[in-house]
Amino acid sequence: GRLNADNARFLLLAVLIVLYMLCGAAVFSAIELPTEREAKERWEERLENFTRRHNLSRAELRHFLREYEEASVAGIRVDDIRPRWDFTGAFYFVGTVVSTIGFGMTTPATVGGKIFLIFYGLIGCAGTILFFNLFLERLITVIAYVMKSCHERQLRRKGVLPHNGRRGSGTSEVDSLAGWKPSVYYVMLILCVASLIISCCASAMYTPIEGWSYFDSLYFCFVAFSTIGFGDLVSSQNIRYESQGLYRFGNFVFILMGVCCIYSLFNVISIVIKQSINWILKKLACKCCHRCQRRLFRSRRNVVMPGNVRSRRNISIETDVVNESDTDGRRLSGEMISMKDFLASNKVSLAIMQKQLSETANVYPRQMSSNLKQNGFSGGVGALAIMNNRLAETSVDR
């Protein structure tokens, strides 16, 4: 049933994520490990030369460096930087907390600050995630409105829709546009372009002000906007900037817009990944079903079945609630089924019949033309009326 399909989707996604992580670890290890070893060898050589030049023991020097590492965690640097915990620095910190970026350059050192962070981050992160979701909904609404307007213009150019906005020959087209929504691939493409434009504009600002290369600025934008937040590059950390207030405002706007776009892009990509997983599971299920049907046909080809088994399984979205059940299994095994099971397994057909009966009772009698009366077919209500209408259409076509 649906639970088994969800479990299969979950397991397949877990396997794919693990494989993705293994491949990523192999690639990063092959790229970064040689550079790390070279840097370690250069550091050991410098450390040895420094101890010889100043006649220091290696243990004392390492102890001093460990103390500097502790001071660095508290925000102390060799170069002059702005205070970490003034109001602007604290506001920058809470922005990285609620946005789940967490650069790690500024962290609370007191017990009270750590306890407050737990409760503050719990509410702040939840509220920010809700804001991102609402932003995505409104963004999709705007995209849908723009794309729908463009689609309506194309239909007007083709003459399907009237230019004055009144319903004419294109009534069916207007009705079909009522619940029209854009494709997820168009939304993904638009979000990719928007994220790229914001990242390029932000990198053009960071490169001259922070002194980074343009590629490092792009790298920082992705790490910050995707809320990964390594902390190796952090903006707005120097003590002085040219047009400091304007730069901090621009930094805040770019990070906010970038996080919203990248977060929305991640949500859309997750939908595409889910569709891909469903496609893979469908292909695997089709192969398994073909094998099972062949085995079943070979083993039970001489068995008389108590009824017709449905051969079409391409159920639409409206009838997607009908899944494989124990009723299907009993029908394949040749057992008799109860009336309750029969009605449950055929509720789609019953719903369609009820809809046809309702349309026959309310619509068709009013739409009966003189041709039907001339052919001797009455309106009627019920299954007989459906048959009469079909015969009437056949006779009129002839």
Automatic annotation (TrEMBL):
Localization: Cell membrane
Family the UniProt entry places it in: Belongs to the two pore domain potassium channel (TC 1.A.1.8) family.
Any one GO BP annotation for this protein: stabilization of membrane potential
Presence of keyword RNA-binding: no
Coiled-coil stretches noted in the UniProt entry, renumbered to this chain: 33-60
UniProt cross-references to Pfam families, sorted A to Z: Ion_trans_2 (PF07885)
Gene Ontology molecular function terms on file: metal ion binding; outward rectifier potassium channel activity; potassium ion leak channel activity
Domain Potassium channel span(s) in chain numbering: 77-139, 189-274
Membrane topology: Multi-pass membrane protein
Protein name: KCNKD protein
Organism: Cettia cetti
Keyword Transmembrane helix: yes
Keywords per UniProt: Cell membrane, Coiled coil, Ion channel, Ion transport, Membrane, Metal-binding, Potassium, Potassium channel, Potassium transport, Transmembrane, Transmembrane helix, Transport, Voltage-gated channel
Organism superkingdom: Eukaryota
InterPro entries: 2pore_dom_K_chnl, 2pore_dom_K_chnl_THIK, K_chnl_dom
GO cellular component, one term: plasma membrane
Chief localization: membrane
Transmembrane segments: 12-33, 90-111, 117-147, 184-206, 212-234, 246-266
Catalytic reactions on record: K(+)(in) = K(+)(out)
